[in-house]
Amino acid sequence: MRNFDLLSPADALAKLMAALDAAQTRMPAESVSVKTAYRRMLARDVTSPIALPEFRRSTVDGYAVRAGSTPGVLRVIGEVQMGELSNLRVKLGDAALVHTGGNIPEGADAVVMVEQIKSLDQSTWGKIQTQAQVSPGENVIQEGEDVRPGDVVMRAGALLREQEIGGLLSLGITQVDVTRKPRVVLIASGDEVVPADSPTRPGQVRNINTPMLSAMLTRHGADVLDYGILPDMRAAFEDAAQRAMREADMTIFMAGSSVSERDFTPDVVNAMGRPGILVHGIAFRPGKPTLFAVCDSKPVFGLPGNPISVLVTATMFALPALYRLQGSTMPRPNLVGAILSSDVKSPRDLEHWFPVALSEDRPAAAAGMPTAEPITTKSNLIFGLVRAAGLVCAPIGVDRLTAGSVVDVRLME
Amino acid sequence: MRNFDLLSPADALAKLMAALDAAQTRMPAESVSVKTAYRRMLARDVTSPIALPEFRRSTVDGYAVRAGSTPGVLRVIGEVQMGELSNLRVKLGDAALVHTGGNIPEGADAVVMVEQIKSLDQSTWGKIQTQAQVSPGENVIQEGEDVRPGDVVMRAGALLREQEIGGLLSLGITQVDVTRKPRVVLIASGDEVVPADSPTRPGQVRNINTPMLSAMLTRHGADVLDYGILPDMRAAFEDAAQRAMREADMTIFMAGSSVSERDFTPDVVNAMGRPGILVHGIAFRPGKPTLFAVCDSKPVFGLPGNPISVLVTATMFALPALYRLQGSTMPRPNLVGAILSSDVKSPRDLEHWFPVALSEDRPAAAAGMPTAEPITTKSNLIFGLVRAAGLVCAPIGVDRLTAGSVVDVRLME
């Protein structure tokens, strides 16, 4: 296929996402303990069962009063204990000692900060004086001021970060409905490929793609099923594809080196379900032969087999689909501006992502930016990414990025 | 303490880091399977035991030849099987069919791409012709070209990302020395505070700080020990502090609301070991009363008790220390440029971080940037961060950020 016939990466991804939307592909809800829900995604909106705060509280250390008693001399009638509703009753001219977060006793409508108080005698419960005038409501947070019962406090699709975990627990919610983890099948292949932890014979190579993708996908919410390494035989692929359609929510084929396998894989994918292949070939380096399909509402990917292509195409195309299956959206990539240290040639008709190392201690750092040093590897070996802090994009239409120009580095973290 | 006497956040953190460096505080190494080492940090440099590639390989589909045979007519003497070293021997005028990644047979020194070949007869092993002239080494990757035996391929302190996992496995390394997970003790307090999953009586509040920090610290490599909620009694704090010095590598006190506790906590921390408190009070909002100590080489933190302060100060100050304990450096925060939607007042003598929501569908999006909408909450309740995509900083010396200005949003992800 000629490059200028290929879809741009953005168009290819949009086509995949539109097909997933049309198929309404989304994992079902499952109820989990909030304590284990960190980094999961909400299956439904969350409505507060209670008011927050649950009672009127002071926002400062001070004395609860009627605003109309200030400025003036006040009589201390007692102290509000933390962890209890106070049974004090504050009348005009009364003051009740209250700590930050403590309950505002009945009758009081404001708090005078302790810094604005002068003691008039030595006794604990004596007379105090303030020259400050407080308004009703000052230094008080009303019951339900933050959250009222029935308020929608979180939306379906939200990623449960630290603050969502805290927010749920603060409402007394200890079980929450999240989307089930998508089951993702990984299928490697190649007669020369052996499991990464096996000894190799000369001429064999270790399968590092499955452990790398398994780690990445698990981190982003997947439950990974490893189908191992298939021989370069059509029947083996057909069996694995059928099994994946029964067991998985998403399937990723990682290509081997065999020409015949490249020839039969599209047929095998199309036989997995309707509509089948949406995109085959993207104006993208590394990963031009990437294949996207939706088969009976499930995303299926055919990724190129070399380790750099696998990692980069999975990041760009499989992760957004994985988040979509969880009813959510992939977090923004972390971009850092940097000064390119040398020219990089790029194919004009492809969107080209190349690895760079970041260095803070070069002259360009004087401009407040690190230097981005392009990493070139002839063999597409994974060590090109080991030395890399991130990837830089040369867009379609650009045939050279020049040394000294400012580029955005998409960090690989 | 008056604000202008306080250390800036950067100076305070530098002081802590310098003390940890001086104490050479770092976790010991432990050997783990590479399959479970994802997101761990290397305890030592990694040296390659082998060459990569382990044998001469083709980078294309084509015919292995002697460069001197091209251009011209070539006799096909066989095919290199994937997964084996070839026993073919290529002489002048010979060609051996080879696939991408396949072994270059003895005698050959270059590969002619299959696209540059014309078949001269119908037989499989017949004569072929090429008009291309290849140079010695063309389309060949030499043994050890990427990695030579003894090369240092990864450095101590490196975070093991997908590509490091793949890189280690590609070298046949299946066990790796990483730094042991730092044990971090979390100590909550307050007579009004109850565990987050307990029923509450009126006047009580749930402890959400421990589950939030536990989630965050675990994600960044810690092994968290939860000491529960202490009563506001000095003896309870002293016991917990002693136990933490025996069991933990790092200790975090989360303040309760009690004034007496605020008074005795510094003494309790100083009694944990030398040099003791380094910083008490930072020109930082939210979290001015934050306390840092190093006690017998172990970092100890006293964080303010309100949930927003806890999360923000832990992110800014405890996470960098946690990475340092692992012999590494905290990843760069993810910053996004945005247009501030409204004025924000800020105390001139504090570095002030406030939460913002990000909105893409406002007029400012026309400038290619989202809008950052400040979130103000009177009570510092956690829902101020639930609605937030991230935090914006008003530096020391600034008393107002104005609507329409461009700000960096530090994403909370």
Structural class from helices and strands of chain A?
alpha/beta
| Total count of helical runs of at least 4 residues of chain A | 7
CA distance, first residue to last residue of chain A = 34 Å
Approximately how much helix is present in the residues of chain A?
10-25%
Number of strands of chain A: 28
| Silhouette of chain A | elongated
Question: Largest sheet of chain A, described in full?
Answer: 6 strands, mixed
Strand order of the largest sheet of chain A: 7-4-6-5-9-8
β-strand percent of chain A reads 25-35%
Report on this model:
The structure is a homodimer of 413-residue chains. Chain A has 413 residues and is of the alpha/beta class. Chain A has helices at residues 9-22, 162-170, 209-219, 234-247, 259-270, 307-325, 383-386; strands at 29-33, 46-47, 57-58, 62-65, 72-79, 94-98, 110-113, 117-119, 127-130, 140-141, 152-154, 175-179, 183-189, 193-195, 205-207, 223-230, 250-254, 275-280, 284-285, 291-295, 298-303, 335-340, 344-345, 351-359, 371-374, 390-394, 400-401, 406-411. In chain A, α1 runs parallel beside α6 and α4 (234-247) runs parallel beside α5 (259-270). The interface between A and B is large, with 82 and 83 residues.
